[in-house]
Amino acid sequence: MKMEAELLSKCAGSKVKKAESEGDKEFDSKDVDKMFKGIKKPTLTVFSGDKDLYRNWKAQFKILVDQIKVPAKTKMMMLKNSVW
């Protein structure tokens, strides 16, 4: 799981830094589709409550959910589905 989080952060690292420097713009779902074109889209792992795994899970959540333009209700549903 740590490797998956590191890979996700590396894949989106340049776009995330760019977005932060441009006033914390969010990604559009089309941007995410372009980013992972030709490869399997990563999925958010389910957080079991283990405090040692929280940082990796939080990084995944920020990349896969929090930075994408979707309604708040959808983000909340994704959060509920990713917590054990």
The largest β sheet comes out as:
none
The Cα radius of gyration reads 13 Å
- Portion of residues in beta strands equals under 5%
Q: Measure the end-to-end span.
A: 16 Å
Order of helices and strands: HHHH
The residue ranges in which pLDDT falls below 50 over 5 or more consecutive positions are 14-23
- Which overall shape is indicated by the principal axes computed on the Cα atoms? globular
The tally of domains stands at 1
The total count of strands amounts to 0
Question: Quick check: average pLDDT?
Answer: 75
| DSSP summary: helix tally | 4
Q: In which range does the helix fraction lie?
A: 55-70%
Helix/strand-derived category reads mainly alpha
Topology overview:
Elements: H1 2-21, H2 29-35, H3 54-66, H4 72-81
Offer a concise description of the structure:
The chain has helices at 2-21, 29-35, 54-66, 72-81. With 84 residues, the chain is mostly helical.
Tell me about this structure:
Helices cover 60% and strands 0% of the residues. It has 84 residues and is mostly helical. The protein has one domain (2-81). Helix 1 packs across helix 3. The radius of gyration is 13 Å and the shape is globular. Mean pLDDT is 75; it is low at 14-23.
